Amino acid sequence: MNIKTIGLWVGLAAFLLLLVIPPPEGLNPVGMRMAAVAALMAIWWITDAVHIAVTALLPLALFPLLGIMKSQPVAANYSNHLVYLYVGGFVIALAMERWDLHKRIALLTIRQIGTNAQPR
Fold first, then answer.
1. CB 13 within 8 Å of CB 27
2. How far, in Å, are 15, 29, 73, 85 from residue 42 at the CA level?
3. Do 31 and 23 meet the contact criterion of CB atoms below 8 Å apart?
4. Residue 50's closest CA among 103, 3, 119?
5. What SS3 class is residue 91?
6. Rounded to the nearest 5 degrees, what angle is found at the Cα of 9, between the Cα atoms of 8 and 12?
7. How far is CA 48 from CA 4, 14, 44, 59, 67, in A?
8. CA Rg, the chain, in Å?
9. Is 116 left (phi over 0), alpha (psi -120 to 50) or beta?
């Protein structure tokens, strides 16, 4: 078995274990369920058991199912304006890479400036 498969099963086992054991003194059951989700996500991120985007979306599905938070406040955390800024930048970067625009810009810059590092 490879590390991804092991991470997948260890993450699920840790998640289920933390859901069934009683919480330590001072931690309420909601906190214990949150710890279970955090452990699952941490193990999956470290081992890359599933794609990182799937792991990042786990709270969106698990928080309402486990009674940690309602779905609307969880979803609101995914719609921060900075998230859209980054996504837009990534889409532009992917488009530039797809059409080799980054190479064209580099070649145009070299053609205009030249290859000599000495100032003119």
1. no
2. 11, 20, 22, 26
3. yes
4. 3
5. helix
6. 90
7. 6, 16, 5, 17, 27
8. 23
9. beta
pLDDT of amino acid 40? 97
pLDDT, averaged across the chain: 92
Q: What is the pTM of this model?
A: 0.69
Residues 6+ apart with CB under 8 A from 14: 36, 39, 40, 43
What are the structural domain ranges in the chain?
A: 1-69, 80-120
Tens of pLDDT along 75-84?
A: 988 888 888 8
Burial tier of 54 (Cβ tally within 10 Å: 0-12, 13-18, 19+): exposed
Question: Is the distance from CB of 43 to CB of 14 less than 8 angstroms?
Answer: yes
